[in-house]
Q: What sequence folds into this?
């Protein structure tokens, strides 16, 4: 991007009258000026064309090197620019496409709110994965870089958490209870991106159902570990092996993708990367607090906000309603049951034992680093 800035220049070597009348010159240029050589009594009007010509020549030289490196002729690309359309906001953001992705299944007005809300969630999930990938793709991330990216992710989840107010108070219960019947067996449980965020954030053992963690280690086949992920309990009978339609359809669509992702992030998830950092970085207080904040925001604050939003609708009648996917939604959502924790080494034993019980409102910010 060509930088625009104000340059304050003191002109020397010019007439005394010039100095007296214009001791400083302020000018705005849309090019980056490195060195200005005034010859004799040249004026700015004289030198600006020369500066601009030199700058353009340098840009063309850099472009030539760029395209030569990939075996391309720069003239072809420059000629292409002559034919290219002028960029507009709506073309760049693809607003026409974006605003036509909402398709209602009923004539209930608030269904549109429900659809758009969940689409926004998925876009934010994509932003989360994008930031996580910045860390996992860096061979030796610094503590500062790591913490900065986690702070970004936490802000996205803070936004997701506060947005549940839209779900909780932004739709009429009567309308919701009508259009939700057309959604079965679909459920927000089936958000694949949320599962990817979990895989990319922590070691797989931390996502295994508490009942089976003792039987699973790093030598366990990924397929077996997948069958014992904590969220399988939302739609699987472990006595019979039967799965609900909700879980079966989800597995048919995404299981292979999940297995690939699990293998990819087995040694490059945020938790493992943190453990591989030098001791000084692992003890970095800013980084530890950023990790704890992210862990708490995702696995307590966000899920409990989701729980209360669902509770507002599912318990609005005389009898509690089932989730559209047929899952035991209370046990699935409440953090105290599954104790989903991305970075268990960064929490004290007391904090782990009372996860989802005493930390529903807030978590402690460390004043001293935890030894990891």
A:
């Amino acid at each position: 991007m060509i930088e625009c800035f104000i340059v304050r220049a003191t002109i020397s070597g010019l007439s005394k009258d010039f100095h007296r009348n214009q001791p400083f010159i302020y000018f705005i240029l849309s090019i980056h000026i490195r060195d200005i050589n005034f010859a004799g009594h040249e004026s700015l009007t004289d030198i600006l064309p020369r500066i601009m010509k030199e700058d353009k020549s340098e840009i063309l030289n850099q472009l030539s090197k760029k395209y030569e490196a990939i075996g391309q002729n720069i003239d072809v690309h420059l000629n292409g620019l002559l034919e290219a359309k002028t960029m507009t906001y709506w073309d760049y953001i693809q607003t026409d496409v974006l605003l036509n992705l909402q398709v209602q299944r009923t004539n209930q007005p608030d269904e549109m709110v429900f659809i758009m809300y969940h689409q926004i969630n998925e876009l934010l999930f994509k932003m989360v994965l994008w930031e996580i990938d910045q860390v996992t793709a860096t061979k030796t991330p610094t503590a500062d870089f790591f913490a900065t990216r986690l702070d970004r992710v936490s802000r996205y989840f803070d936004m997701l958490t506060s947005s549940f107010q839209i779900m909780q108070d932004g739709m009429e219960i009567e309308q919701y209870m009508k259009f939700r019947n057309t959604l079965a067996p679909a459920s927000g449980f089936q958000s694949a991106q949320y599962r990817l965020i979990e895989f990319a954030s922590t070691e797989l053992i931390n996502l295994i159902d508490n009942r089976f963690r003792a039987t699973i280690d790093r030598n366990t086949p990924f397929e077996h570990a997948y069958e014992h992920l904590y969220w399988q309990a939302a739609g699987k009978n472990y006595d019979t092996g039967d799965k609900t339609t909700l879980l079966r359809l989800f597995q048919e669509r995404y299981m292979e993708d999940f297995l690939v992702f699990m293998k990819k992030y087995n040694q490059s998830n945020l938790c493992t990367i943190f453990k591989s950092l030098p001791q000084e970085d692992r003890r970095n207080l800013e980084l530890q607090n950023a990790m704890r904040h992210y862990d708490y925001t995702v696995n307590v604050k966000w899920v409990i906000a989701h729980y209360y939003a669902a509770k507002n609708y599912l318990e609005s009648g005389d009898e509690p309603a089932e989730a559209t996917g047929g899952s035991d939604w209370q046990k699935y959502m409440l953090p105290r049951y599954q104790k989903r924790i991305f970075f268990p080494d960064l929490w004290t034993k007391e904090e782990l034992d009372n996860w989802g019980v005493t930390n529903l409102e807030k978590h402690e910010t460390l004043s001293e680093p935890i030894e990891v």
Q: What stands out?
A: Residues 1-36 have pLDDT under 50 and may be disordered. The longest strand covers residues 5-10. Strands lie at 5-10, 24-29. The chain has two domains: 5-63, 109-353.
